[in-house]
Every structure is written in structure tokens, then in C-alpha cells.
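Q: I'm building a small set of examples for a reading group on sequence design. Run inverse folding on the following structure and report the sequence directly after it, with nothing in between.
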């Protein structure tokens, strides 16, 4: 019995279009699903640190404490690269039904590429995710720079709210190259950081903000409010630069109409 939904091959070579129809569609993880995985991994690392510290205190040995200290630092640094390169997923990825996929091979990323993903993600923090909606496959900065994606591991266990399919190629028409956009983004970020450093100096010079507050010693209510506004402004500007730059909306890497 033939199933209508399945393509039938009578022995002739399949065309490229036929192969495309039979190839499984990649399901790319949404931001909320990736955040859940990050939270689980954070809890795992925190539990490991607490257990190691508790053991060091209980044993009361300086030598053991140093060994445990080095071990926990190594475990925290190698946790993601080792698991992602060998299994495709951290514990957080696995629980949330996700896996990291290499663009070139379609399999797990290499250990060096997994290390690069972690380094970029650690450097940029949450800023790495602001370009998700501007990419065709819901990629963060650390995904794009390492040519990888985060996909659903088992589609049968996924809900529609967990993923999206590749966006239309129309997003790329007239778009400057990735390297050009990346360079322009970093140039704008450098200018923005210099600008915010100047603002801090002006605030200190006008005594709107004290050096003691900047050093974390003591802040008045007004200084706390200024620091809060300053932090949110910096976050908003950096996020806007990354998002607009990747969409081709910054001078120097504008998208052609």
C-alpha cells in the first residue's frame, strides 16, 4: 500500500527538487527555549561549585582546597565545549530538546569551534542574542561567527512555540556581507563606548556622580538612580547598534533597496 504523503521512487535518479522534498526540515530554536537551556546549565554549574566548596570546607585541607578550586574552574570552562562537541548538547540543551549543529557538516561542532562559541557568548553576554530576529535561522552572534545553529533535537517532542523554520531568503537581498556588517557594528560599538566613558567623566566632573560610588563603596539615592539610568541606556544603545547593524541599517553597511 502506498502512502500519499510519501514520495515514490521507481528506480530513476531523484532530482534535486525531489531530494529537497524528502530532506527533513531543520527546526531552529526560539530565544525563549534557548534561555531555558541556559538557566538549567547555570543551575548545574552553581550546584557543582557549591558541592566543591562544601567538600573543601568539610575536609579542611589547603591542598585539597586548591585542587578542588582548579578542578571546578576547569569543569566550568570545559563543561559546554566538551559536551557540545562530543554529544551536540549540554545538559540544558538536552533537557530542552536542543542541539548545536555545525553548518558545514550538519553534525556536532568541533571542540575548537565549541570553545569559540563559549568565548564569544561569554564576552557579549545577552547582547549576543539581540540579532536573532534579523537572521534567517534565528542565530545569535556566537552562532553566526562560528557558522553554527541551535536546532530541535527531536521534532516529535517539540511544540510549535519551541521553534521556527528558516525565514525567507528575501531578508538577504541587497544585504552587505557578514564581515562588513560585523566590522561596522564593532566600529559603532567602539564609538558608543568612548561616548559613554566621556559621559561618566562629565558626571564625575560635575559631581553628579562620586568616585566612591563608581568604586562601589557608597552611593546616594540620586547616584543609584543615575547608575541605573546609565546602565539601561548603555544596554539599549549596544542592543540597537547590533540589531540595526545586522539588518543593514547603519551607515557604512546599508542594505541596498
Amino acid at each position: 500500500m502506498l502512502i500519499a504523503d510519501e514520495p515514490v521512487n521507481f528506480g530513476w535518479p531523484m532530482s534535486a527538487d525531489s531530494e529537497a522534498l524528502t530532506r527533513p526540515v531543520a527546526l531552529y530554536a526560539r530565544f525563549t527555549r534557548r534561555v531555558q537551556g541556559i538557566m538549567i546549565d547555570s543551575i548545574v554549574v552553581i550546584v557543582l561549585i557549591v558541592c566543591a566548596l562544601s567538600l573543601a570546607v568539610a575536609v579542611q585541607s589547603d591542598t585539597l582546597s586548591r585542587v578542588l578550586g582548579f578542578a571546578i574552574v576547569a569543569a566550568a570552562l570545559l563543561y559546554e565545549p566538551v559536551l557540545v562537541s562530543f554529544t551536540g548538547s549540554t545538559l540544558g540543551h538536552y533537557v530542552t530538546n536542543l542541539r548545536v549543529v555545525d553548518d558545514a557538516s550538519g553534525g556536532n561542532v568541533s571542540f575548537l569551534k565549541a570553545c569559540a562559541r563559549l568565548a564569544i557568548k561569554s564576552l557579549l553576554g545577552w547582547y549576543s542574542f539581540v540579532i536573532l530576529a534579523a537572521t534567517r535561522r534565528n542565530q545569535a552572534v556566537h552562532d553566526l561567527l562560528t557558522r553554527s545553529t541551535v536546532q530541535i533535537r527531536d521534532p516529535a517532542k517539540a511544540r510549535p512555540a519551541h521553534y521556527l523554520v528558516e525565514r525567507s531568503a528575501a531578508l538577504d537581498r541587497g544585504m552587505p556581507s557578514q564581515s562588513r556588517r560585523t566590522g561596522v557594528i564593532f566600529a559603532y560599538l567602539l564609538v558608543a563606548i568612548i561616548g559613554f566613558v566621556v559621559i561618566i567623566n562629565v558626571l564625575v566632573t560635575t559631581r553628579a556622580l562620586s568616585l566612591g560610588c563608581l568604586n562601589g563603596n557608597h552611593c546616594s539615592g540620586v547616584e543609584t538612580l543615575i547608575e541605573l539610568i546609565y546602565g539601561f541606556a548603555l544596554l539599549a544603545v549596544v542592543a540597537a547598534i547590533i540589531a540595526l547593524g545586522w539588518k543593514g541599517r547603519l551607515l557604512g553597511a546599508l542594505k541596498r533597496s
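The beta strands are 28-29, 98-102, 148-152, 163-164, 249-250, 253-254.
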